[in-house]
Amino acid sequence: MEKKGAVLVVGAGVAGIRASLDLAEAGIKVYLVDKSPNIGGTLQQLDKWFPDNHCEMCKMLPIFDRDQTSQFCLRRDLAHPNIELIPYSEVVGVAGEVGDFEVSLRVKSRKVDTERCTACGICAEVCPIEVRDEFNEGLGSRKAAYIRYPLAIPNVYTIDGENCNKCGECVVKCPTQAIDLSAEDQVRKLEVGAVILSTGFEEFDPQVMGQYGYGRYPNVVTSTEFERIISCGGPHAGGLVRPSDKKAPKRIAFLQCIGSRDLKRNYCSSACCMYALKEATLAKEQNPELDIDIYYMDLRAFGKGYYRYQQKAKDEYGVNFVRCRVPVVREDPQTHNLLVVARAEDGSQISSEFDMVVLSIGQTPSPRFQELGQLLGIEFNKWGFCQTEGLSQVETSKEGIYVCGSAAAPSDICDSLIQAGAAACQASTLLTSTRGQPVLEMASVGMSARADEDPKVAVFLCRCGEDIASVVDMEEMLGFVQGLPAVVYAEERPFLCLPETLSEVSRKIVEVGANRVIFGACAPYGRERLFREALKGIGMNTALGQMVDLREQVAWPHKNNSTGASEKAKALLAMALEKIKIQEPLLVDSYPVFPQALVLGGGIAGLTAALSIAQQGCEVHLVERSSELGGNLKEHYYTLENPDLASLLKDTVAEVEANPLIHVHTSTEVAGISGYGGRFVTTLKRAEEEPVTIEHGAIVLATGAEEYEPTEYLYGKNNKVITQTELEKRIALGQASGLSSVVMIQCVGSRDEERPYCSRVCCSQAIANALKIKEANPDAQVVVLYRDIMTYGFKEEYYTKAREAGVIFVRHDLENKPQVTLKGDKIEVRAYDPIMAETLSLEPDLLVLSTGIVPSDNAKIAQMLDLQLTEEGFFQEAEAKFRPVDLLTDGVYVCGLAHSPRSVEEVIAQAQAAAQRAVSLLRKGQLESGRIVSEVNERRCSACGICVDACPYNARYLDLEQGFAVVREALCQGCGVCASLCPNGAAKLRGFKETQMFAMIDVAL
Fold it and tell me: So what's the pLDDT on residue 446?
């Protein structure tokens, strides 16, 4: 049995990684399990993401105490002292109860010893078996000895037991004897306090929809296959070609909602529209002459920045949008071109020929997830996704088991990561209540050399079997380094990374009295940790060890040029020696964290965040500028999913007020904030009272937003024109009876030139109100004038129910909005119906406007905290996909409507995610800097302030009394912006001295 009080995270895709990192940063032991031999999930198949077409997956890496974790690209390495990766494993048994689960894992044998495998690839070279390459969606093949993708995590090979023919060639050829074809699966038992399910989704198989020809027509591909086709690491090295003849296509059609929004799967997969937009724009970037049509029913660009992205695809890239659902695709057997046949809104026939058709396939739950759910005793909804409880997006039907991402509902990356943070928060809260606060495990930093010691360098060269030695002359290398100044010892080894070799190397370093070490081996991903641990084991500062990549940088790219490879290897080793000779031990600085949090905003986001922090044992100051708590939720009574918001608000306020760790400040404004992550000082001002100053380590911004007050459509001029919120109140108070005719207009104050974003909740609110009216009076006429209905996820079912109840939906567009005039004492609404191809004239009892959400005045807080706002005025997060609750000033987090328009359940999840980020910081007790940080030459500094303004991490400030800039080392990320901008050369990166750089350049030349 292993580690009570730990958390098991099942599924190591992006949501599982985020949940694990959040828990690990809070000091909680995590077992991260995945059924695949390599982690990363579907995300690893994608190169870029909307809405900016960047990667930036590395932004998930910890900001504070970063030397305790790997800082490489998360496609290549994931390491944290509190996370244990257990890939190629499945849960086969669960016993116990909340706080004390006993979980049995079947750890499948990959037939390869992970400690001995060097990822040389020889096993794959000699393997005679080829099978379908799942990672590239069957567009290529792989061997039975394989690694899922280049530099996968962990970067070791697996023998596919189902397809291996046991020929034994890999066993014979493996240079480290890492392969054992007789190795069997193992059962491992874990004791954990909580479980998080982040098992993701499976792609819908479009072969069951034969009308599209998938599997029969070679040029009909899925959206994921298209991702692999255009990927630089894909089977065509990023070249956009069609499968049938490998020619570049000229016309491509994207068909939306394949496997979603139909009778069998009456839900929206939430991300497909945006994936189509992204893939279309990436294709257009490759070939601007491409003609691309996207066939859709509703373009659901409801996320933050998504509508702008949609408009950019249309206006700048020239993507064409066709509103209709395509019933059939036909193929010309001679050319393999594809004919898309459909009927437009006006009834006209559409028939267009394309070189390729891309099916935007939906998300479906894995059949294996059902088996896992039965083991865990959790409930599922009718479509096989995990059933969550009430307004929580992460609580399952079984206490202590949480869910996030597409295991609970179809989600995109951003929402999956928010839910992952919320699930981590719930699990952390549970463990805090049952076990007490965990303590973050920290590694100590050793020191074995003084600045005044002469360098004594030991050099260890790795042959990597013959992977390096077959190209680089190792005897020549050994003789070369032995003759270099300051080298006191040099040797070569077959494999430096093997456990027994590292032990021998460690002893040899001590024996020869070396105080600096060079390892000439392979790429640092994964391996650098091994060498660092070896140095720590003998008390040597890890900065005094240097890795030189002789495999990926020398041997592999120069296989046919042994002489050139050897000369390059000599140059790299000589440069490394010059650097390490001058290198000094790099020590870390630290400062204590104020163990309190400040939450600004007393709506449901702020209330939830405050509770989530306090329930984990941290003190909280909750500040609300109005006289009472509740925020916008006081004006709302129900949602599509929840009939009683009043009880939710009442109960939450009562919990907050009863919690002794939460200090509520109503009718209070923030007068000033100073400081930085871990050590903020805030002045609070309440009318007629003396200002109060509080010290705190983290800030959560939950300042909310406001409902747009319309000036159009006679609002405010006629009492028959009201907003959806006003209608909701009338219905809840029983004041809406007798309505026989209601017209609703969507997107009032949203998705226009002034506010080019979707307010996300308006469509759901309109449908909820429409259904209430129909329940009260089934004969009432309810007409909804809309542009795109944004009932994403499981909200789609309510859209269907509304249509079945007789609610009439009539589409309009931005250029042809409804017209509202007075006709005597009646309101006349005129709207063009594209299906009827005529203008409708309606005279409703009530005209209801679905008004958007507009940001509060956030400028003051943004200025105090050096934050950025979006063009619309919401707070700009640090990274749209991978740090959705972090702001650009470290230690400051955002949730709720201050971030962007969101539903109540989404606000709650985001508040929990922000709270967990805050708790992870507060629990550290103290913050330690990285080894590589900026430093200031005080004599050169002129206190111009350029570096202070440019620092993206608020890690520098001006000491006006001393007259120079000062570095807050624990906040510095070593990015080097200050060094690049300093006009006097006063800003430098520790560990990168000018003398080192010039010495390296000189020896290279």
Answer: 44
Q: Any idea which residue has 């706002």 for tokens? A: 869
Residues with Cβ < 8 Å from 873, sequence gap 6 or more? 854, 855, 856, 857, 858, 859
∠ at Cα 215 (209, 216), nearest 5°? 100
What are the Cα distances from residue 875, in Å, to 296, 869, 895? 31, 5, 10
Phi first, then psi, for residue 141 (nearest 5°) are -125, 165
Any idea which residue has 């000229």 for tokens? 250
**833 and 815 in contact (C-beta within 8 Å)?**
no
What is the Cα Rg of the chain in Å?
A: 31
What pLDDT sits at residue 997?
84
Report pLDDT for 354. 98
Query: Taking residues 963-967, what's their average pLDDT?
Result: 93
- Phi, psi at residue 635, to the nearest 5°? -95, 0
Task: In whole angstroms, give the CA distance from residue 527 to residue 174.
Answer: 19
Listed in order, strand segments (DSSP E) in 367-451 are: 401-403
Which residue in 626, 843, 893 sits closest to 720, CA to CA? 843
**DSSP string for 562-620:** HHHHHHHHHHHHHHHHHHHHH--PPP--EEEPP-EEEEE--BHHHHHHHHHHHTTT-EE
Tokens of 785: 């004038």
Note the pLDDT of residue 442: 45
Could you give the residue ranges of the DSSP H alpha helices within 844-903? 859-865
- Verdict on whether the full-model pTM lies above 0.90: yes
Domains of the chain: residue spans and CATH: 1-108+185-201+365-443 (3.50.50.60), 109-184 (3.30.70), 203-364 (3.50.50.60), 457-582 (3.40.50), 595-704+856-926 (3.50.50.60), 707-854 (3.50.50.60), 933-989 (3.30.70.20)
Non-local (6+) Cβ contacts of 651 within 8 A are none
* Cα separation, 504 vs 764, whole angstroms: 66
Segment 160-209, tens digit of pLDDT: 999 999 999 999 999 999 999 999 999 999 999 999 999 999 999 999 99
Q: Are 892 and 677 in contact (CB under 8 A)?
A: yes
CA distance 811 to 134: 41
At position 387, the amino acid (one-letter code) is Q
Higher pLDDT, 65 or 920: 920
Collect all residues with Cβ–Cβ distance below 8 Å to 208 and sequence separation of at least 6: none
Interacting residues of 70 by C-beta distance below 8 A, sequence separation 6+: 61, 77, 78, 79, 80, 529
Mean pLDDT over each residue of the chain, to the nearest integer: 93
Question: Does residue 58 register a pLDDT over 90?
Answer: no
Lookup: tokens for 595: 């163990």
Torsion, CA 211, CA 212, CA 216, CA 217, rounded to 10: 140
Q: Strands (DSSP E) along 551-595, which ranges?
A: 590-592
